[in-house]
Amino acid sequence: MIDDANQPTYKRVRKAILFTDIEGSTHWLNDKGPSVVFQALEKHFNLLESSFARYKGEIVNRTGDGVMAVFPSIEKAIRGAVEAQQKIGVSRADGAKPLLLPAIRMSISAGEAYLVTTPGNIQNYYGRVCAEASKILDLAYGHHILVAAEALIKEESSRHALMADGIHFTNVQQIDHKSIGKISVLEALYCPGASILSNVTSVPEISDTGFIKPQHISLGSPSRK
Q1: What are phi and psi of 158, to 5 degrees?
Q2: d(C-alpha 155, C-alpha 73), whole Å
């Protein structure tokens, strides 16, 4: 007889899903050694956790040198991501005690997900929104925050609130995935205190919608692993 108390439960929820990954982590481990790397990783995870928590974000999984986090909205996820990237930039530049960490890349999508709770109250999230965020991460390089365009465009008030705080968006490309379908991807451009614009060849012209007007923006693309 099956004990229902030991069966997983699930419910549908609307959430923003964020993934992170450290760029060049394999080379970093080989170069610095496990003692330095794993100590820096713990500081890194603590920094992510505190940055995300300010916007009601929660890390639900560690994915090797990255994390999967969940937020109540796409606006909060983007704000949490920007704050984390800025803090990482400051920590790496600390002359007295720098955080010896390569660049971080992030991806975000939002929509309906399944919250699954297993015995022991262990929770995880599944569904298209998770797959989208994970797939978008493949396009990102260091310092990038990539966002599923459809999820953001639906939230006009959030987009304008982000724009008012200096966070704008430019088109990156469209993914055509065999199981997910087409995903249009935006890059968040943020300042001050961020290094993401350090390689931009010209100042972008921003429309009143918060999106960068069509033009070429050249960003660095170092090796990811």
Answers
A1: -65, -40
A2: 9
Of 76, 83, 71, 63, which is closest to residue 21 (Cα–Cα)? 63
The CATH code belonging to domain 8-144 is: 3.30.70.1230
CA 114 to chain centroid: 20
Residue 113: C-alpha distances to residues 3, 13, 102, 129, 132 (Å):
26, 5, 31, 6, 11
What's at 157, amino acid-wise?
A: S
DSSP classification of residue 132: H
What does each C-alpha distance from 202 to 66, 217, 218 come to in angstroms? 32, 7, 9
Residue 80 is which amino acid? G
Rounded CA-CA distance 23/191 in Å is 21
**What does the pLDDT profile of the chain (225 residues) look like in tens digits?**
455 667 888 899 999 999 999 887 777 777 777 888 888 888 889 999 999 999 999 999 998 889 999 999 999 999 999 999 988 887 766 655 655 677 899 999 999 999 998 877 778 899 999 999 999 998 888 889 999 999 998 888 998 999 888 898 988 788 777 777 788 899 998 864 443 333 333 333 334 444 433 333 333 333 345
Residue type, 217: I
CB atoms within 10 A of CB 119: 11
CA distance from start to end of the chain: 48
